[in-house]
Amino acid sequence: MVCFRGAPACVVPCRPSISNILLYSSRNLSPGPANAVSLPSPFLFSLFSAPKDSPVLSCRAHTAAAPTLREICSGSVPEHILQRAEEIGYVVPTAVQHQSLPLLLSGRDCILHAQTGSGKTLAYLLLVFSALDFNRSAVQALIVVPTRELGMQVTKVARGLATMPKGCEGTRTCTVMALLDGGMLKRHRSWLKAEPPQIVVATIGSLCQMLEKHVLKLEAMRVLVIDEVDFMFNSSKQVHLLRKLLTSYSAISSRQTILASATIPQHNRFVHDCVQQKWTKNDVVHVHVNPVEPMPSNLCHKFVICSKKERLRTLLYLLQKDMPKSGIVFVGEQSEKSKKLGQPPSTTLIIEFLRASYMGCLEVILLEEEMNFNARATSFSELRERGCLLVSTDIASRGFDLPQTTHIYNFDLPRSAVDYLHRAGRTGRIPFSKDKCSVTSLITKEERFVLQRFENELMFQSEELVLESLTN
Ligand SMILES: Nc1ncnc2c1ncn2[C@@H]1O[C@H](COP(=O)(O)OP(=O)(O)OP(=O)(O)O)[C@@H](O)[C@H]1O
Fold it and tell me: Which of 83, 115, 205, 452 is most buried, most CB within 10 Å of its CB?
């Protein structure tokens, strides 16, 4: 471990990694790890080094001296939560948990910035449980998420952890409310009035409705988490409400603020803004895991060049060849022009085509924004229960945790490198697993340079697949 003068005691002992793990305060506004090394020591908390090609997750898992989650959290997280986490299978911390939990549990505001599937949810949930007064019926932790589906997922994980483990029955636990768009807000209103839950997981729209009506009160809130924070700040609809939540509905001094995402473009600027705008305290810590390898290393990227007309047939061919255990086909959103012309969206065309011609054993399921919330909820739960072939817009690209997903297909290229990363990150989500999962993009010759741009930006390489049987 390389430890600098002025580093706080919360630095985690582990294998040094110059390139893999970087923790620095809001005052470190330099662009990357190389610059961070040359900063004056009080600005730098810790710097660790491991070979670039050794994935952090696996290197932590096999480090003999690596502490367990129990060792990191005991004394802060209640015993029954730790026991329950172990029952579920959370024993060895992932890199982001290893690095962030000591800081989180010491009360620091944190920006959690780590690869997709790296376990950020468990990191912030363990903090949430450590901060609760289980005997008090008041909202003490608020987790804000961008979509209903992600909210359902986080609620499920939180409820799973809050369930009493064997032998602890009778101990007081907490309640978790999902306050999500499309939910039954009337019922939630009565619940909030009668017996407020300790944890609320909310989408920003529903949350603000409740706050404006003074049904939900945040006086007792100790922890505020904003998940997929870059996505939330990118949406003009949400940003105003988000700013209000961060600055008017509660004060930074009375809460611990956690902002999480796998992608925080211009993160130095963002950390600076967090302090300037008073979204976080001045000593907010940016926990940046694996800054030189933003994409999980167990993903294998491929592309097939085909004309737009051949795309459906090519997709079918790939599915028959790959035989995914479970997969997602990502499709671009329908353009306004195509809507005006009354054309069906690509999702509908793909679903109809696959239902008619795909002979694999997976059921083909649709998920898109235009579906009503009940239909979306059905698709989402079917998806979680068993493997399937999901045809979706980018609604499924953020935060969705479907560990059984082995294959991703970009039927249409995403709009940006960030979107590519989040789509790709829906696979390869089993921590410590070395199994290869694949991301295949179906592109025209002209689109090759767009994919190349994503490769440069995200530092990965794709292999070209030449499908002989299609060209014959
Ligand atoms: N310590 C652990 N041991 C075993 N599995 C874990 C551990 N921590 C998390 N996981 C599992 O890893 C998977 C990914 O975790 P999670 O959904 O929190 O990732 P994430 O970092 O939030 O990803 P994204 O940025 O894509 O939302 C989940 O299935 C979770 O159950």
Answer: 115
Tell me, yes or no, if the pTM score tops 0.90. no
Which residue in 256, 249, 300, 311 sits closest to 280, CA to CA?
256
Ligand 1 cavity residues, CB under 6 Å: 89-90, 92-94, 97, 116-122, 262, 399, 401, 403, 425, 429, 431
Please give the distance, rounded to the nearest whole angstrom, from the Cα atom of residue 98 to the centre of ligand 1: 13
pLDDT tens figures, 145-203: 998 889 999 999 999 999 988 877 777 789 999 999 876 778 888 888 889 999 999 99
Fold of 69-288: Rossmann fold (3.40.50)
Task: Evaluate whether ipTM surpasses 0.95.
Answer: yes
Q: Are strands 44-48 and 462-464 parallel, antiparallel or unpaired?
A: unpaired
Ligand 1 atom 26: residue of nearest CA: 116
Q: Measure 352 CA to ligand 1 centroid, in angstroms.
A: 33
Residues β-bridged to residue 287? 23, 112
Q: Tell me, yes or no, if the two domains 69-288 and 299-464 fold the same way.
A: yes
Q: Residue 118 C-alpha to ligand 1 middle, in angstroms?
A: 5
- Domain map of the chain by residue range? 69-288, 299-464
Report the distance separating Cα 155 and Cα 148, nearest Å.
10
CATH of 299-464 given 3.40.190.290, 3.40.50.1860, 3.40.50.300, 3.30.470.30: 3.40.50.300
